[in-house]
Amino acid sequence: MTVTAPGASALPRPRLMAGIVAVSFFMQALDGTIIATSLPAMAADFRTDVVSLNVGFTAYLLAMAVCIPPAGWLADRLGARNVFLGAIVLFTLSSLACALAEGLWTFAAARIAQGVGGALMTPVGRQIVLRNTPKSELVHAIALITWPALIAPVVGPVLGGWITTHAGWRWNFLLNLPIGALGLALTVLFLVGGERERRRPFDGRGFLLTAGAMASILVGLELLSQDAGGTAAALALAGLALGGLAVRHLRRVADPLIDLRVLSTRTFALSSLATGTAARMVINATPFLLPLLFQVGLGLGAVETGSLMLVYFLGNLAMKAATTRTLRRFGFRTLLVVNGIVASLAVAGFALVDAATPRPLLLALLFAAGLTRSMQFTALNTLTFADVEPAMRGAATTFSSMTQQLSALLAVAVAAFLIRLSVLVGTGTLEAAATLRDVHAALAILGAIGVLVSLRYLVLARDAGLEVSGGAYHPRAAAGRKRNG
């Protein structure tokens, strides 16, 4: 079945729906990275300091942590399309409120509303795509909704710095208005998935435990990345303890907030728990570490750093056209192992970059790292849902959104910790400034972690996800999927 917009050629509905969801995902992902270079200007306008301004980011994280767990329940209760529409409206209007904020606390309140919108947008958007996409189209659909997470961390800081310099920091938030309006119009015109599922009671205890665990871990990781010390560690540990209680409760209750039976699907568990989280951590750490390498380590300016990151972004973009064909040719197991090792070695390769590195060699490494990063992220995200039954897709999208949010913050926290550890080992104190050697150490260690994680995918059957990757469906493939599910 096809849907034809006025003046546009016919597009397969699954790809069109994925593209619409991707527009909203891009708005959210860009918002999380574009304002990083605007903090000094924002602090000056609010008559506060940059450290105090972090309350706005902590409020955003807390709102997301609280609202991600019940997203699936709300989608079943009110209809996924309705919740997704509401999330876009809330996120867009709260972006306007952020732009109009005149003080720290009004800004924090607007960020809370943004966090609620973002928390509902991501899992519910994925749920709509998954419920309306046949397995043969899943690679294309996942590739479309994955690109915002790949591109935004690379282009966001550069774009944010340019906007702040030439138009003012408020335009970083006002930029969301036309994007949100476009996403809203496309959703109203073309998106399906408004049906309500079976009504089930709200699991209040499960909500308190999962939201408490998410909030404690996310804020703890955020504080760890800012060197908050014992308080951050205590929060993260408390979150893990609450998480254990949440798992115990969710496994026992008749109508859990999140159905953990989805973890019995081997490919989902492998892609969403420890292995998948560690893999995404390495992938997400590079947009944080590379600007440090260029600016702190090599002394390059913001414009030159942005130009180099653009090459990395082009590598991400160039791989999109080849993702489906490559998966069809090699399959998930071979691709995740081999490409994962190459991507991890590329990360470690930046540990050899210094002022004497020839520029053509650096550009080639950046492009190759972008190519392999894009392929690994798309393959991993596709495998996550390859064998999930339709009835479990709501629980799968909620659980996956939680672990992906954790991996993004874990990437920054671990990278920052490794840099500080290298500083401590090299100087005997944490007070010394980080140098090129310290950034190199973090890149090398994360690259090694990536190689080890990639080898973990050897436990997959050779034909895991064959139907999704576009290969022929035959009894041997079915047996492989059974072993992985």
Roughly how much helix do the residues carry, as a percent range?
A: over 70%
Beta percentage is: under 5%
CATH superfamily of the largest domain: MFS general substrate transporter like domains
Total domains: 3
What is the top-level CATH class of the largest domain?
Mainly Alpha
Tell me the number of strands. 2
Radius of gyration: 22 Å
Shape: globular
Could you describe the largest sheet, including whether it forms a barrel? Answer: 2 strands, antiparallel
Distance between the termini: 30 Å
Tell me which CATH architecture of the largest domain applies here.
Answer: Up-down Bundle
Poorly predicted parts:
1-12, 472-485
How are helices and strands ordered from N to C? EEHHHHHHHHHHHHHHHHHHHH
Q: Record the strand order, biggest sheet.
A: 1-2
Please report the number of helical segments: 20
Derived structural class: mainly alpha
Structure description:
The chain is an all-alpha fold and 485 residues long. It has three domains: 8-200, MFS general substrate transporter like domains (Growth Hormone, Chain: A, Up-down Bundle); 203-256; 259-485, MFS general substrate transporter like domains (Growth Hormone, Chain: A). The protein contains 20 helices and two strands. It has helices spanning 13-34, 39-45, 54-67, 71-78, 80-100, 104-131, 138-166, 170-174, 176-190, 204-225, 230-252, 266-272, 274-297, 302-319, 323-349, 359-386, 393-427, 436-455, 466-469, 475-484, and strands at 2-3, 11-12. Strands 1-2 form a two-stranded antiparallel ribbon. It is globular, with a radius of gyration of 22 Å. Residues 1-12 and 472-485 have low confidence and may be disordered.
